[in-house]
Amino acid sequence: MSGIDKIIQDIEFNTDKSCDAVLGTARSKAESIMMDAQRQAEQIIADGKERTALHVADIKKRGESAADLEGKRVLLSTKQHIISQMLQNGLENAKHLPDDEYFSLILQMIGKYSLPEDGTILFGEKDLKRLPADFASKINDAAKGKTTLSDKAAAIDAGFILQYGGIEENCSFDAIFASEAENLSDRAGRLLF
Q: What are residue 160's phi and psi, to 5 degrees?
C-alpha cells in the first residue's frame, strides 16, 4: 500500500469514525427530543383530561342545580295550584251552603263588616228570592247600626253590599275571598305543607 492509499484509508477511517460519532450524537439527541416530546404530550393529555374532568363535573353540578331548581319550581307551582283550587272550592262551597247555614254566615258577616251608622244592605237576586221571612229583623240585630234591607238586587251572586251614604262596602263572597286571598293562601299552605 502506498503512502497515498494509507492516507486515504486513514481519512476514510476517521471520516467513518466521525460520521458514526455524529450519527450517534444525533440519534441520542433525537431520542432525547422524542422522550421530551412524549413527556410533553403525556402532560398535555393529562392536563386535558383533568380540565375535561373538571369541566364535566362543573356541567354536571350546574345540571343538578338546574334540575333541583326546576323541581322546586314545579313543587311550588303544584302547591300554589292546590291552594288556589282549595280556595276556589271553599268559595264555591260557601256560595252553596244550605239556606240556614248560609244566612247564619251572612249574619256573622254583617256583624263583622257593618258600621255603627244607618245604612242599607243589598243582596244578589238569588239571595233576595230565598231570604228567610224574619231576616230583616235579624239583620238589624246583627248590624252595629240601623240597616235597611233594599229590595233592589245587587250584581253579585253571594254575600251582600252595605251602603252608607255614597260609600259601599262590598261584602260579596268573591270580594272577600279576593281581598283575603293571600292570607287564606298562607294559612292553607301552613295547614297543608
A: -160, 170
